[in-house]
Design goal:
alpha/beta; 14 helices; 307 residues; five-stranded mixed beta sheet; five-stranded parallel beta sheet
Length: 307
């Protein structure tokens, strides 16, 4: 059976995530402890106790979600459950890269800690907003954003999530104007998102430049399974400049819509989303109602799957 592992991105976090799994499984405990040791922050405390405003800071959110996903992944691996393909949404791509062995666990934690810090702090001081646009064709969303940019305001499509959902990102004023226009154009729903920056846009150029220096320190390996890139929805290959891809990833739109298409073409039979929330399986179901999707984000869902 062809299986894909999916790793969630920012916005999936909730206070208490992973706690029940941590309390039962020794291997999960070790992952939280290792992540805390490498990063020098108490990842477990941020995940299990919050408070919410602390967990929602980008510099904490990214490492918290990744660690929770990797703790669950460790249990699956110990049970002999493997995947042919791995991918994720934004920071979730690092879960996929660690699973495949392209990046070591230690390097992945170090990178995501720096990435979260730069993305949360190295941005121009303005008010920002992201919003999910549901039920409107992509070219119409791109057109509305372009019209608003022509007036000197900043808003762009940032996450192409699936055929019926695209997230836009930019300054608060521009995104709010776009939200109204997109509703007028016939969007079924437009929802503000629980994120704190203009992610995957040119506003993060400074963060990208700083992050490139961190990537220079990393040794990348040959992967043991296929990993789909967010940047263009294709597989990583041995000729890729991974440092360049991961740096550009910060300022480029996420193409999860293309990842879904590629997994469909590969005839994936089981999609497992590993970590908090159920966002990615939701996107897959929107484009492929028949898909066999599984979410493992709690002790109950983990044990239901294992049994």
């Amino acid at each position: 059976m062809k299986r894909a592992f999916l790793f969630p991105g920012q916005g999936a976090q909730t206070v208490g995530m992973g706690k029940d799994i941590y309390e039962k499984y020794e291997e999960a405990k070790k992952i939280y402890e290792k992540a805390s040791e490498i990063s020098g922050i108490d990842v477990k405390k941020i995940c299990f106790e919050g408070p919410e405003e602390e967990l929602n800071k980008t510099e904490n959110t990214q490492i918290a979600i990744l660690t929770t996903s990797l703790a669950i992944l460790e249990i699956l691996k110990n049970k002999g459950i493997e995947a042919d393909i791995a991918t994720g949404l934004s920071l979730g791509e690092y879960g996929a890269l660690i699973y495949s062995g392209i990046i070591t666990f230690e390097d992945g934690i170090k990178l995501i800690q720096k990435r979260g810090f730069y993305m949360g702090n190295l941005i121009p001081k303005e008010e920002y907003l992201m919003a999910a646009v549901i039920g409107l064709e992509v070219n119409k969303i791109e057109e509305v954003c372009s019209q608003i940019r022509e007036k000197g305001k900043f808003v762009v499509p940032a996450n192409y999530n699936c055929s019926v959902q695209t997230a836009i990102s930019g300054t608060k004023e521009a995104v709010e104007e776009a939200m109204q226009k997109l509703k007028d154009e016939g969007a079924k729903r437009v929802i503000p998102l629980k994120t704190s920056g203009p992610f995957h846009t040119s506003k993060l150029q400074e963060a990208k430049n700083a992050y490139e220096k961190e990537l220079e320190k990393i040794q990348f390996n040959k992967g043991k399974c296929k990993v789909i890139k967010n940047i263009d929805g294709t597989y990583y290959n041995e000729n890729d400049n991974i440092k360049e891809i991961l740096a550009n990833h910060i300022i480029s739109p996420v193409r999860f819509d293309k990842a879904i298409k590629l997994m469909q073409e590969e005839n994936v039979e089981e999609y497992i989303e590993i970590g908090p929330g159920r966002t990615l399986t939701g996107f897959i179901k929107k484009d492929n109602k028949e898909a066999n999707t599984i979410n493992i984000n709690s002790l109950e869902s983990l044990e239901n799957y294992l049994n």
